[in-house]
Amino acid sequence: MINNISISNMEAKAKEFNEVIQEQYYPWFAQYMVMKRASIEPNFHDLYLKFFDKVNSKSLNKEILKATYENCKVLLRSNLIKSSSEERSLLKNLGSWLGKFTIGRNQALRAKEIDPKSLIVEAYEKGLMIAVIPFTSKVSIPANFFCKIFLQRLQSD
């Protein structure tokens, strides 16, 4: 189902999703989406977000956000994060996904889950800046977009 999503068939795929996937399977699906799709396919983030908007399920969005936070934390605690560019790439992609899924949708980033300021301080102390700075930058990109729009509106007034 996810392999064949496009802008042209999104309505039909969202309807099919709602008919086929029961709510009890949302945690499994959320984990699949985060680890097998969002962390590996950053070029499709916007498409996936539009798809979830069409599916229009608060409980699914909650599970996806939960899986995103959990997987970000797993990667941030990984011993390989210093030496493995693949691990850092997954983390960076999840940072982009997290930013688009929260800030990009006008929702707050939960500091109790992931606090960028604390992450940066801790990364400095542990020598993990190579992984944490790209991650936090990707998380904050949607905020920069909103700031840019806000400043443009202020200038036009």
TrEMBL record:
Domain of life of the organism in this record? Eukaryota
What's one Pfam family here? CNOT1_CAF1_bind
Q: PANTHER family, from UniProt?
A: CCR4-NOT TRANSCRIPTION COMPLEX, CCR4-NOT TRANSCRIPTION COMPLEX SUBUNIT 1
Q: Which GO terms describe its cellular component?
A: CCR4-NOT core complex
Q: Which InterPro entries match?
A: CNOT1_CAF1_bind, Not1
Record domain CCR4-NOT transcription complex subunit 1 CAF1-binding: where: 1-140
UniProt name for this protein:
CCR4-NOT transcription complex subunit 1 CAF1-binding domain-containing protein
Gene Ontology biological-process entries? negative regulation of translation
